[in-house]
Design goal:
This protein is of the alpha+beta class. It is 29% helix and 18% strand. The chain is built from four helices and six strands, in the order αβββααββαβ. The strands form two sheets. It has a three-stranded mixed sheet with strand order 1-3-2. A three-stranded antiparallel sheet has the order 5-4-6, with helices on one face. Helix 1 (5-18) crosses helix 2 (64-76). The chain starts with a helix and ends with a strand.
């Protein structure tokens, strides 16, 4: 699938153009190592965007739609005012979702797309009770401790839910 990356990028750009989404070009690549935390990342340095995809997208039982889904999500970040998951991001993902039914989310649970994320001796799994997003931690961070104590009342998920987390001890 690595050789098909530009096919996916071109396909996603055609969707964005069809929806009149004012995206900016980005250098798209596949990370050298799989991450346990993310499927894709959009970075901006000196006004130049780069999108990095997790190789786990190409090494699992996932179908092609997840690659398109992640690329659409990351390209929305290149739109002026959409580098976060705020109202502008929601506006453009709504346009695409309404026309193409991709259901682009601000956060995504990899298991929902049959993407097998690598494990690295994680000791804690945090789950958003609202959207099902999952984070893994090797150590007891401030976030993990807050979730264990009070459900993470001072933390907000990318889906907008505040203090709706649960912690699962893995080891």
């Amino acid at each position: 699938m690595f050789e098909n990356l530009m096919f996916y990028v071109d396909f996603v750009k055609s969707i964005l153009l069809d929806c009149n989404v004012p995206f900016r070009n980005a250098n798209v690549s596949i990370a050298k190592k799989s991450s346990t935390q993310w499927l894709g990342q959009c970075k901006r340095k000196n006004g130049v965007f780069s999108i990095v995809l997790n190789p786990a997208l190409f090494q699992s039982q996932a179908d092609d739609s997840i690659v398109v889904h992640v690329l659409l999500h990351e390209f929305i970040h290149t739109v002026n005012g959409c580098f976060n998951h705020g109202s502008n991001f929601k506006y453009y993902d709504g346009i695409i979702n309404n026309k193409y039914h991709y259901d682009i989310a601000r956060t995504t649970n990899a298991t929902a797309f049959n993407v097998v994320m690598p494990t690295q001796n994680n000791k804690f799994e945090i789950v958003c009770n609202n959207c099902g997003a999952v984070w893994h931690y090797k150590r007891s961070t401030d976030f993990v401790q807050c979730v264990e104590r009070d459900g993470g009342q001072r933390w907000t998920c990318g889906c907008g839910a505040k203090g709706q987390f649960k912690c699962i001890r893995l080891h």
